[in-house]
Specification:
Length: about 500
């Protein structure tokens, strides 16, 4: 099975924030999980360079647009190593040679289908959103996302016949060919379609775009709407514009999974699929929509400063702490509030004290009571049934949770192993068994073998199941559980305490 996983490509008008790290980490977990199950996976990310927002932000900063975009794009790319991401491919829409031919090809295919036409248009445009708003969509005359007054714009543009695609889209969604999760988001899209789809503007005068962007094929006075341009990245990176093999392998022949935030749902679940239908291509198979993070109770946006810079957080507190907070605390539905204090508390409680302490104790006991040699296979000890079940079921529970994009439930299944194991240790008190064994009780010695074997099995299961979520921590657990010359290494902390 092939799985193609994409994140959205953010504007690079400022440095990345923790909200975008959420999407990257979620996508990375899915990619690692599918690879671990034997799938072939392609995980793609990128940056949206062709936005008018970038032009405006560069002007404000008094910097050349290219230089400005390159600098911020580098900060986004640096998230890869900082968050231990296994991104296979990165596309930058302004400089990647694969991009423009693909965008132009989609345009020509839609034109050939009779879905593009020129029209004079007057409307209210929010540059922050890069979209026109109808007066009914505004809040007190202001953009609901940016709380700024939109500009009145009158110009002749190219339009896309979205109005033709309401019924085919509705069918694809209700039949499950285009799966949108969570269900509330699917219903939101269906309600939007039921309200009637209007054709939308898909070009801008080149002049208003500051010359930045891709010219409309055959009409160089116009540039292609930045959203059209950006959405195409999902296939241009696969060589759609040049008949690349990757396109056949990863678009027509794979499960196609888009991750995105709720603010860009309509673009991904309506506009993009309609463009694909018009140009005769398969739709994405899965769209997973996450909600937003706030930081200290306030909305995070790229322009709100260095509030929560994921690369800085990872370098100060470790990649594991950042990833664990994002995966463990952010619900599948509803917003979550990020604070450094919450991240530290969660990491110390569950990683240092819970998981780390367990591995440390088990390795230390095997060294003290068995000279570092793990006992050979043993039956499940009395009282160890719940632990045994948590270990055996974790894989299936993680798989089921991730099939529904429920990262919190998936990490809970892994955490259950550590939780059961810690409870088991406190109940069976291996140190008492060791004392009894030393006093000549051979029954206690046999029971100690079974207990240590079960606990060591739990550590192995933790290392294995934790890999998609905390690859660095999982590698350290594996290291602690790997015998050299038949003996486990000295115990050393798997997760450091942060508080
Ligand atoms: Zn706006």
């Amino acid at each position: 099975m092939h799985t193609y996983i994409t994140t959205t490509i953010p504007y690079v008008n400022a440095r990345p924030h923790i909200g975008f790290a959420l999407e990257l980490v979620q996508a990375d977990v899915l990619a690692r999980h599918r690879r671990g199950r034997g799938d072939r996976v392609r995980f793609q990310a990128g940056t949206d360079d062709n936005s008018l927002k970038n032009v405006l932000a560069a002007e404000t900063a008094g910097v050349d647009v290219r230089e400005f975009v390159d600098g911020n794009a580098r900060a986004f790319l640096a998230l890869g190593p900082a968050l231990s991401l296994t991104v296979d491919d990165v596309i930058r829409t302004s400089s990647d040679l694969r991009h423009r031919p693909g965008v132009e090809r989609v345009w020509r295919a839609c034109a050939a289908a009779g879905d593009l036409y020129r029209k004079r248009y007057e409307g209210l445009y929010c540059t922050g959103c890069e979209q026109f708003y109808s007066p009914a969509d505004l809040r007190d005359g202001r953009c609901p996302e940016h709380e700024t007054e939109p500009q009145r714009v009158a110009e002749e543009n190219w339009f896309f016949r979205l109005s033709r695609y309401g019924e085919p889209l509705r069918e694809a969604i209700t039949r499950g060919e285009l799966r949108i999760e969570p269900a509330g988001r699917r219903n939101e899209v269906l309600a939007f379609i039921a309200g009637g789809l209007e054709d939308f503007s898909v070009s801008r005068p080149a002049e208003r775009a500051g010359g930045w962007g891709i010219p409309v094929p055959g009409d160089p006075g116009q540039v292609i709407y930045v959203w059209w341009d950006a959405l195409c990245n999902y296939i241009t990176a696969l060589g759609y514009g040049t008949d690349g093999d990757a396109y056949r392998e990863w678009w027509t022949g794979a499960r196609r999974v888009h991750l995105l935030g709720k603010g860009v749902l309509r673009f991904h679940a309506v506009y993009w699929p309609a463009m694909l239908l018009s140009s005769g291509q398969p739709l994405p198979t899965d769209i997973y929509v996450h909600d937003y993070l706030t930081a200290g109770g306030r909305k995070i946006s790229k322009s709100s400063g260095a509030a929560a810079d994921p690369a800085e957080l990872a370098s100060e507190y470790g990649t594991d702490a950042v990833r664990w907070w994002l995966l463990r605390e952010v619900p599948r539905v509803g917003d979550a509030d990020f604070t450094v204090e919450r991240m530290i508390a969660r990491a110390d409680d569950e990683l240092a004290n819970g998981l780390g302490n367990l591995v440390n104790r088990v390795v230390a006991m095997i060294r003290r009571y068995r000279d570092g040699r793990v006992p050979g296979p043993q039956p499940v000890p009395d009282g160890g049934e719940d632990l045994d079940a948590a270990c055996r079921r974790a894989g299936d529970r993680v798989g089921a949770a991730l099939a529904g994009f429920d990262f919190r439930r998936a990490t809970a299944a892994v955490w259950a192993i550590a939780d059961e194991a810690n409870r088991f240790v406190n109940r069976v008190r291996p140190w008492d068994l060791a004392r009894a064994e030393r006093a000549g009780d051979t029954g206690a010695g046999r029971r100690l073998d079974a207990v240590l074997y079960a606990l060591f099995g739990a550590c192995l299961a933790l290392g294995r199941e934790l890999e998609p979520f905390l690859p660095d921590g999982a590698a350290r657990i594996d290291c602690q559980c790997t015998a050299l010359d038949g003996r486990l290494p000295d115990p050393s902390p798997v997760f450091r305490r942060l508080a």
